[in-house]
What we know:
The chain is 62% helix and 3% strand. The chain has 16 helices and 3 strands. It has a 3-stranded antiparallel beta sheet with strand order 1-2-3. A hairpin with a 2-residue loop joins strand 2 and strand 3.
Amino acid sequence: MEFSALSMDLTASPRAATELRRSADALLAHLAAGGATPAAPMEITDIEGYWLPPAIQSLTALMSGNDALDALAKAAQRDEQRTALFLCLALAVAGQGDRIHASWLGIAFGELSAERPVTHGQRALWLAAARGAYGPAGKIFVLRKLDATAVPAETDIDRWLSSLVPGEPAVVVPRALVDYPELAEIPELARPAQAAARLARLRGRCAEITSSRRPDESTSPPLRNRSRRPASTWSHDEPLSVLRTLIGSGGPEGPLSSLSGHLLEDLGAGSDPDLAAVALHVVAPIVRSVAEELAETTRFNPPASVTLPILGHRVILRPEGPDPDSLAAAEARIVTEGVPARRGPWPGYAAIALGVCGLVSAFFVTLWLLLPGLALCALGAHRLRLHGRQLQADEEFVTTRVTELRDLAEGAVWALHEHAREAENRAKLATEDLTDLTRLIRRGPRAA
């Protein structure tokens, strides 16, 4: 339903139209502030063919307990749907939604389709009914309307889950794999843990939505303006905003959204609890199907082997222990690649040989060669000593790295065994989460 154009051209009597809008706007502000009809009857000038004057007369008659049939019949004859929408929303804003006739909701709501955007009038009725403005019958009416409109099958399932449980971690590290986070990134091990964590968060969100207690920080804004502000400051309130557009006093309408868009918004964190409960009821089949799939994914089947990078070397791990061939290859790479190439001890030996030659020459040629000979011998001995220390350090490094490689590989195998034991308990908890989630969804939103 669009309200950009009125049901007739009012340019023929602009003064009467202006007075009518001013009176209607004052009435809405009065109802929103206190929810009671004015003490003195309003003077409403009828405009031939326009639905609003008799609709206002029927509204004031209904709220005063007087006969409204004649005015209601005249307004419905001129525009039945706008009349019904005006009365339903005005009575809701005034806190007297129980005075509406059951048929008015159907006329005002019209047809809802997943292929067409939800109109502002439909959304306003949806919001008012969800907050209990029309009692249990009104909420049930909206639920049936939404249930009858199937959510498109091609809708991305991840969008619904992202709305319900946003901000999920990229990797879930089970307790058994805390010391080996690389194992938690292996798809065969990551999927069950991620599925269990996602299912637990989904169950928690469903419990929050269906809880009988409303969180203090997410209290629904009232339909009635108890602070007695002017209606113009209530532009964010959907029912009153639509009412002001209906009478021609509102600004341009905001963009329309699809049925899926409204449901995704209502399911998001921090949304109105009543709207979230209705939205969860509508998408319950999707949520239940995804929950069953997540529970099935948590049933862990340990892989026959996994390949884990340890100290930069890939080692195959099996239930009985590290694969001997891959472990031996890793140890060989540590020996060949872990130690830089060293020059041999020949410079030291060469220096000692020259020093010996100098000493011999000092006895047969001149004593001046004695000191250089001794210096060359000392230098050669020092170079040999340094080379020996480097070889010992390299050998200790290789031994330490090989021992560390073996310890880490054995520890990873034990972590996999512990992870498998945790997986059994995780699968049991996932089954319980699925049972609780199914019960919560089956319970549905509270009609009262």
